[in-house]
Amino acid sequence: MTRLLLLSLSIFVFAPQQPPAPATGGLDTAAIDKALGRTGQAQDGDVYKVSAPRSDLKVTVNGIAVRPGLALGSWMAFKRAAGSAVAHGDLVLLDGEVNPVISALQQGGMEITAVHNHVIGESPAVLYVHFWGKGPEAQLARTLAVVLGKTGTPAASTAAADTTAFKGADELQTALGRKGTVRNGVLSLSVARPEKITMMGVELPPSMGMATAFNFQATDDGRVAGTGDFVMIGDEVNRVAKALRDQDIAITALHSHMIHGSPELYFMHFWAIGTPEKVGAGLKAALAQMKTQ
After folding, report:
1. Banded pLDDT at 24 (limits 50, 70, 90)
2. Which of 1, 106, 226, 276 could form a disulfide with 272 if both were Cys (CB 3.0 to 4.6 A apart)?
3. Are residues 220 and 260 in the same domain?
């Protein structure tokens, strides 16, 4: 009896352990990281988001040097859906990169959902390609690695983070009435909508591009520059547009980022420049014209 008990314990102790279950809603995030050569972050519980800033680009808007985090950040978000995975995101591209990227997406079985500008008056010209894909997450990530290879997007850097302070961030957040996060000299914050949002029948949380997004950086003359997009239903579009223009905030684009979306959403991009208090108050007035959480 004693020998039998010891044998049973030995089998229990030395039997191979099962690998841990993939994190982030069942996604195999290790496979995504390996394929992309980048590490993402879990957001909204079951979304895994990977950033690929275009730090190779030297873009100016009306003489202001645009930081990558302000308007030059490609991103790819993954989520489990119906026994597989979906990927949705936004790629920042030069003119000559647009069609090679679209072809690479198509060759990998992925689709485009929008091609357009986000800002105006920039030099060099920058375009944005939004994409959608469904399948095993490792396969989606491998396709996106090929896609990034068609661009000048730098490999993930191990360099220390930019610790540039953002003078005026506190005043801006107070005027706006919302808190964000400063990283690499850019203040970012987002404002979610109250509705359930779906595309291609898959529910997309705020972190998959479904929240109003604001990014800000300080300028050399003590002002702040801000850009981003309001995510609106149709009845809100012109109310928000009027509020922006009443505050002397430029509207730079109005379009959709989605195909087969519900509810039907419109994305209005803007460019704001001024004191932190003025920019924050102006955007707060525009937010008041739409439904938010």
Report:
1. low
2. 226
3. yes
